Amino acid sequence: MPDNHRRNAHTVPVVRFLTFTALGLAACAAGLSFVWCKNQMFTTGSQIKKLEGELVQLRSRNEAARTNIAKLTSTAELQKRFASGWIKLVPISGDRIVLVSSAPKPAAPGELRAVNNERRQP
């Protein structure tokens, strides 16, 4: 019987080898994923910084355009362009002007008025 105990003594511990191999692969995968996540964070951060710079430039260009629009539509600038002949305008004659009153005249006591309740469709 001593031969039976001796036969199992020189076997390779496969289960132990597979366990440590699996732990090693898991540690390598965790390390690689950590490095990948950090690299992704730095890449995204640089993209955000670049986009913020572009946003600042666009805002300053918008402000410059608003200033230019305000300057070109000012009464003094329009008057100057009209005087130089750059803007061609024709004066409006008096027969083309219509005055519209905003409030209706109040009804006299005892006066009957027609009422229009029709709704207009745009």
The helix-and-strand class reads: mainly alpha
Q: Mind summarizing the main beta sheet?
A: none
Number of helices: 3
Uncertain residue segments: none
Number of strands: 0
- Identify the overall geometry: elongated
Question: What is the overall pLDDT average?
Answer: 85
In short:
This protein is mainly alpha-helical.
Task: Please describe what this structure looks like.
- The protein has a domain at 11-67.
- The termini are far apart.
- It is elongated.
- It has three helices and no strands.
- The chain is mainly alpha-helical.
Give the key terms.
single chain, 122 residues, mainly alpha, 3 helices, 61% helix, 0% strand
Chain-wise SSE layout:
Layout lengths: L1 H6 L6 H59 L2 H10 L38
